[in-house]
Amino acid sequence: MKTLRGVAITVVALFFSLPIVWMFAAAFKTNVQVTDPSVGLIFEPTLDNFRAVLADERILPSMVNSLIVGVTSTVLSAIIAVPAAWAVGRFRMHRAGSLVLVARIVPAISLLVPWYYLFAQAGLVGSYTVLILSHMFVSVPLILWIMIGFFEGLPIELEEAARVDGLSAFGAFRRIALPLAAPGTATASVLAFVASWNNFMFALILSDEHTMTVPVALFSFISYAGTDWGGLMAASTVMTIPVVAVAVLAQKHLVAGLTAGATKG
Amino acid sequence: MANRHLKWLMLSPALLFVGAMIIFPLLFTLNLSATDAFGAVNAGADHIGLRNFADAFGDHRRFWPAVWRTIGFTVSAVLLETIFGLALAMLMRRAFRGIRWVRTILIIPLLATPVAIGILWLLILDPTTGIANHLLGALGVPPQEFLGSVRASLPTLVLIDVWQWTPMMTLLLLAGLSTLSEEPEEAASMDGANAWQRFRYVVLPMLGPTLTTALVLRAVDGLKTFDIIYATKGAGGGSSFEAETLNVYAYGLTFDYQEYGLAAAVLVLFTLFIIGVVLVLRRRSARSAA
Amino acid sequence: MAAVERVMSRRLFGGLAAGVAGGVVLGGCSSGAPSASTPLRVAAVNHVWTRAVRERLGEFEERVRRRVSMSLLTGDQLSSSYNVKLNASATDIDVMMVRPLQEQLLFAHNNWLADLSDRVQEPAFGWADFQAPPREASTTGGRVLSVPVVTERPVLYYRKDLVPTPPKTLAELKSAAERLTDRNSGRFGYVGRGQRSGAVTQWSSFLYSYGGDFTTDGRSAIATPEAIAAYEYYGELLGRSGPPGATNMSLEQAMPIFAQGKAAFYIDADAIYTGLVDPKVSAVGKTIGYAPFPTGPAGSKPYNIPSWSLGINRFSKLQDDAWEFIRWAAGVQLVTALQTAGIPGARASVWANPAAAAGFPPELAAAMQVNARNGVGHDRPEVLQVGRARDIVGRPLVSAVLQEQVAPVARDADAEFNDFLVRDNRHRES
Q1: Which BP terms does GO give this entry (chain B) (predicted)?
Q2: Residue B169 lies in a domain
């Protein structure tokens, strides 16, 4: 029974990790080797692909752009979504809260043309502002959803006691609930950041050459005369490393954050 | 009294932000869906009432197959993810050596960039130059066409979706499991229930609320799946439209055909459909909780 | 996990947010009337042409005293971004790289492209030096809306180590491909595009060489005996001698299969040969041979088309500088330099210049000359909604590759195509 469980877990771990391992391996192969299946995981590695990534005038700047857009949109989203989540969780405003969650339902395609139209009228196109706003549209509902669960999980007695001691309702949020929810806020922020880091469709349409984010820049390696698979895999590896680092460092918290919304929401 | 103001004050920035971002696109799309706009959205289109909706409902070549594909894809992917996710959560419920590593491995697929993942699977599953057939060949399995065949494309995409999102399901369910008290299970065990019976009649009902939230989440994202399908099958979802879901169809109508009026109508129907699915799932869960 | 909390500390977030907010304000101020610091924005496809031009941008920037910002996207992405941006009358694109046969009619219909008719007539530019078919494709409704910069013809790539002399006719090609196919050892006689929409342009040469065309006198011609024979031929060639999963193959999938040495013949655009001879990408670079498009029942009639042109966004506020860019990028000097580097342009004088052919493998240069002489000026239906037309025309092609009965599907597609043409024509006149 125990060995059976061990075997099952090993098979599962292999199934979920092998594609990523294959991507890392391909990043160290020449293009000829990438499309040759008889070259497995044992080969003479080359760093040429990573040199190409470094030499590409778009990949590194786009990582800076992704960082700027990701951090700003996450911070701003947290600033408006965390208090909202507290209000929804404490005062049972689920109906009003679900209005925000509608943002998760609307297909992105129906937003692109009108958004671009609006932003062009406002003279904002090609700036970080449009990217940040569009990414916040994804992050606000995400953070809200996770944090509602978090606040509902906090014992209300602490806040009530603080109220008895003379704190206002806002004071109870500011001094009691918010510090207690810090781990949750961190998790939700990490997930929102990852969502922004990975976002493709908004970035494709709303960014320009100077504000381009990584998922769009990846396409540098797909040109009219063929695909540079090695370079593509190296760039994918470079852009996945921060995400994997987050996964390794924060796995326990991430799991807690993901699940707070699910068990309580 | 103060609370009344405060709670709205705290919620309103989020509400106003989402409202401000969504109200114009919503009205824009609704208006467009009642016009025959073609080529450009502002090209002097005429209002034609509900004809776009009638056209969509009468279209058995693209629209209805896309509806059934969207449903088929989502139902099979979410079903498999629930079953595997549940099984995996039960496997990982008790700690074992290396659980940290397994958990980390499980997180990566759901954090990785969909665009890169789509391209990666294209490379792995290429019938001629990919590693998948090479490995299958070593096991004595004949080569598969995967995304290259009309019949296998959608199931292959379901497989990719299962790879990417089963971990999410597992993690959600693991958290749900960790909050359950063990007493009912122990009691059932004393009454002579075997492992399956304990799972089926004790654990599963208690997991109900978690399962519903997870289902709603996955169903919404599943219905809207785009990046992976577009990256692996291109516009139109393949040569025989074999992977064309509603989202892919709406994208093609907008960007490949420039049929803005019809595209808007399809998007309106698609949005209503998703809202309907969410409401049905929520109502069912409310009833089962009561 | 503690590390994440540290990283997420309030101070770091605050600092970054403040810094970024500054950037946002600055970024937001960049629109309005153009100043000397406003860059000239060129929206371009990721193509060897674009990369070569970008390396030479310095000389142009010095001349106009303006920075040039060039974006590189894939063809589909470029098309989508035009559709979003120009729908909002965007001014943040000046020069537009367009596919004259794919997008120009529609963009002209939408009135998105500036009229270049007067500009191209300036004597120093030499509009008459451009080959006639690309010049025609650049002219819509009597107005010149773009200037061709890259041209393409199909070429028969073959493996010299497997095929001593290349086939001269389509019939020979098919039998040689069948002979060389050995599925057990993973070698295929032929590889080519089979994806519904992507394959249509490559199939066009087969169609013409069988004596057919997409339309005749504005009516569908895809169920004529010639067209059906061309569908069937292509289906047998790719279906019997091609790799599995052929109907999912566009350029991106077909090319690596030939580059891996898994196929004996491959017909695709001549503009991609650099990818096949590059030893980093291709295992067969040294053994590749090049031949003109084989002869069919109606002769050898390959497409010879302008694949990419430059136009000016009608909403651009830098139209004069944008024209300067086109004049430079499509001028004799740069076209000669690029063609010498292996990128075929559209100027007759450069094609006639033996020095400019030196960049190509001699056999390829010869094949290109032959193909250009026999060429037909389009490789897809000439309609507004090209994407939709390609989907319709490609349907029987997919059936053929899947070894299904072609004639009934072609008749069904023919009816659909006729309805489509009526509607497309109505749009065109409105």
Answers
A1: transmembrane transport
A2: yes
Residue B124 CA, distance from chain mean position = 22
Q: How far is CA B152 from the centre of its chain?
A: 19
Q: Which DSSP state fits C224?
A: S
Do B148 and C110 count as a contact with CB atoms less than 8 A apart? no
Chain B touched by A113 (CB under 8 Å):
yes
Task: Print pLDDT tens along chain A (265 aa).
Answer: 678 888 888 999 999 999 999 999 999 998 888 888 888 888 889 999 999 898 888 889 999 999 999 999 999 999 999 999 999 988 888 888 888 888 888 998 889 888 988 888 887 877 899 999 999 999 999 899 888 877 887 788 888 888 888 888 888 888 888 888 887 888 788 888 988 998 888 888 888 888 899 988 888 788 776 778 889 999 999 988 887 787 777 776 766 666 665 554 3
Q: Where are the domains of chain A?
A: 1-46, 53-264
| H or E, element range at A241 | helix A229-264
- Phi/psi for A161 (5° steps) reads -60, -40
User: Is residue B36 one of the residues assigned to a domain?
Assistant: no
CATH topology of domain C154-302+383-429: D-Maltodextrin-Binding Protein; domain 2 (3.40.190)
Write the DSSP assignment of C303-353 as a string of letters: B-EEEEEEEEBTT-S-HHHHHHHHHHHTSHHHHHHHHHTT---SBHHHHT-
Structure tokens at B187: 């009691």
Domain-embedded: residue B138: yes
Which amino acid, A157? Answer: E
Contacts of A87 in chain B (CB under 8 A): 6-8, 10-11
Measure CB to CB from residue A19 to each of B10, B163, B217 and give the nearest one.
B163
Touching chains, B (3+ CB pairs < 8 A): A, C
User: Cα separation of C160 and C162, whole Å?
Assistant: 5
CB of C103 within 8 A of CB of C80? no
Which SS3 state, helix, strand or coil, does residue A25 take? helix
Distance separating alpha carbons of residues A29 and A35, to the nearest angstrom: 10
Distance separating alpha carbons of residues B219 and B209, to the nearest angstrom:
15
Rg (CA), chain C: 24
B69: domain range? 51-289
CATH superfamily of A53-264: MetI-like (1.10.3720.10)
For residues C148 and C137, is the Cβ–Cβ distance under 8 A?
A: yes
CATH number at residue B273: 1.10.3720.10
* Residue B34 counted as domain residue: no
Looking at domain C37-151+306-373, its CATH architecture is 3-Layer(aba) Sandwich (3.40)
Mutating which of A223, A229, A248 best tests the C interface, going by the most C Cβ atoms within 10 A?
A223
pTM: 0.89
Q: How many inter-chain contacts (B to C, CB under 8 Å) are there?
A: 88
What are the residues whose beta carbons fall under 8 Å from the beta carbon of C162, sequence distance 6 or more?
C180, C264
Nearest to A75 among C17, C81, C279 (CB): C17
φ/ψ of residue C296, rounded to 5: -105, -170
CB environment C334-364: b (16+ within 10 A), e (fewer) = bbbbbbbebbbbbbeebbeeeebbebbeeeb
CA–CA gap between residue C415 and residue C411 (Å, rounded): 6
